[in-house]
Amino acid sequence: MRKISSRIPALALALAVSGTMLSSCSRHDDTIVLKLAHVLDTGHSVHQGMVYMAEQLDHYSDGTMRIDIYPSGQLGAERDTVELVQIGSLAMTKVSAAPLEAFVPAMQVFSIPYVFRDRDHYFKALDSAIGKELLASVEVARLRGMGYYDSGSRSIYMVDTPVETPADIDGMKIRVMKSQTAVKMVAALGGSATPISWGELYTALQQGVVDGAENNPPSFYLSGHYEVCKYYALNEHTSVPDMLLMSSRIWNSLDAQQQEWLQMAVDDSVAYQRELWRASTDEALAAVREAGVTVTYPDKQPFMAAVQEMKASYDGTEIGRLLKAIEAVE
């Protein structure tokens, strides 16, 4: 049975942050050290992209700047790390755009299903003026958006139920991220959305707390969820990027040259990770098939039809404006 680590208690986390174990931005022998935490496995392409970022920053700064990375939820769940970055107790973190909507309402747009026409449109939108606007929108939460990492498309996987149409998840308990928009999406498809933290999901699937979940292929594989869930339907309902966030306070403490070096390293890591993602997706799908998972490609039209009313509900709102701007990207 897979051992799942428990959530770090708030007091213990606060003590860890205030003590010598973690200093968000410190100097050692004239080297600026930035602390970065995230919840992903070290085998994940996003983590590998961050390692590359650290290498590039060391190169650009000639060793005067360093990034120390704390992976696998060592410093808490995504909400924990975002809050630590907000107060400047942590320099940087990676967070999925979905739970970020609790801090920045504009992030809802990424959890609305079938926003992007295809992968090409997805990348063009992220790199366009509207993508930059969304990245900058986190400033209202004392955060600085540094870049988007590719997180592919999210699809449904089930413990023991094949999914070909929305009717197949009618009444089923489906784990979602802590995003009200994701909850609405699953409800529109007929399922019963159940927000559960990533670290607790394996056990929840194993014990029948939920019937299934939704995520991208590398996460499905690296989490070990394929050991419990034997059906993976690639309906690709959402494409929710991972966002690299930085404390506004820490960013503003750097001089212009240091900021330039850091942004260059981030941009390099984004390009590098996007290349890694393609290979990791193919490898993940091959691995789960080998392990006995049935991978299917259901017709997307019934899923798109089921969520049309949900999408229409944003007409005339700020989220509706963002949707139209994304749709207009060629």
Category by helix and strand content: alpha/beta
Outline type: globular
Number of helices: 13
Task: Provide the residue-averaged pLDDT.
Answer: 91
Distance N terminus to C terminus? 48 Å
What's the CATH first level of the largest domain? Alpha Beta
As residue ranges, the low-confidence spans are 1-22
The CATH homologous superfamily of the largest domain is termed: Bacterial extracellular solute-binding protein, family 7
How many domains, in number, for the residues?
Answer: 2
Could you tell me the CATH topology label of the largest domain: D-Maltodextrin-Binding Protein, domain 2
> Total number of β-strand segments?
12
What fraction, in percent, of the residue positions are helical? 40-55%
Strand content: 15-25%
Order of helices and strands: HEEHEHEHHEEEHEHEHEEHHEHHH
Helices and strands, with pairings:
Blueprint: H1 10-18, E1 25-28, E2 31-37, H2 45-60, E3 65-70, H3 78-86, E4 92-96, H4 119-126, H5 129-136, E5 143-149, E6 154-158, E7 173-176, H6 180-188, E8 192-195, H7 198-206, E9 212-215, H8 217-222, E10 231-238, E11 242-247, H9 248-253, H10 256-290, E12 294-296, H11 301-306, H12 308-312, H13 318-327
Parallel strand pairs: 2-3, 2-4, 7-8, 7-9, 10-12
Antiparallel strand pairs: 1-2, 4-11, 5-11, 6-9, 6-10
Helix pairs in contact: 2-10
